Q: What sequence folds into this?
């Protein structure tokens, strides 16, 4: 165990002093941020998919987890606007040395106010969905989830490449 701590400390020192190499540094910057964003957005989709299965009654044994997923959606939605630094959006990403494909569109940079409003709409919709779940009104839950889905779609329509 002591050896592990020494190795971990050495790795941290190497990283902090820049001895980890430029490939790792690039991964921690533009490519790392793009991959991080993709994972976070997939987690939103995963929670939304789980909610959909619960609301459709496909997994009644997990119905008690609806609030868990609603909370996760709200928490992750709060981070959306932090996930799109300028250097990770085309064409800036290419200039910054990105080697990872991204579905983010230039329109994020071209229409920053609209993008921010779309992100805030999703955050508000996620908050409202959580409130509906906490209120335990099935109709309100379904309506709030529909609004959340539409807010996600609205952002994707304007700011993400179309899926093939």
A:
């Amino acid at each position: 165990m002591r050896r592990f701590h020494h190795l971990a400390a050495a790795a941290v020192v190497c990283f902090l002093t820049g001895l980890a190499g430029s490939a790792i540094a690039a991964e921690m910057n533009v490519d790392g941020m793009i991959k991080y964003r993709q994972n976070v957005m997939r987690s939103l989709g995963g929670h939304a998919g789980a909610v959909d299965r619960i609301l459709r009654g496909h997994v009644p044994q997990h119905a008690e987890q609806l609030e868990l997923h609603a909370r996760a959606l709200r928490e992750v939605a709060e981070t959306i606007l932090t996930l799109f630094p300028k250097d990770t959006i085309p064409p800036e990403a290419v200039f910054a040395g990105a080697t990872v494909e991204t579905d983010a569109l230039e329109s994020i940079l071209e229409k920053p106010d609209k993008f921010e409003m779309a992100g805030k709409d999703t955050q508000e919709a996620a908050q409202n969905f959580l409130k509906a779940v906490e209120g335990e009104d099935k109709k309100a839950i379904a309506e709030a989830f529909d609004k959340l889905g539409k807010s996600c779609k609205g952002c994707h329509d304007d700011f993400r490449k179309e899926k093939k």
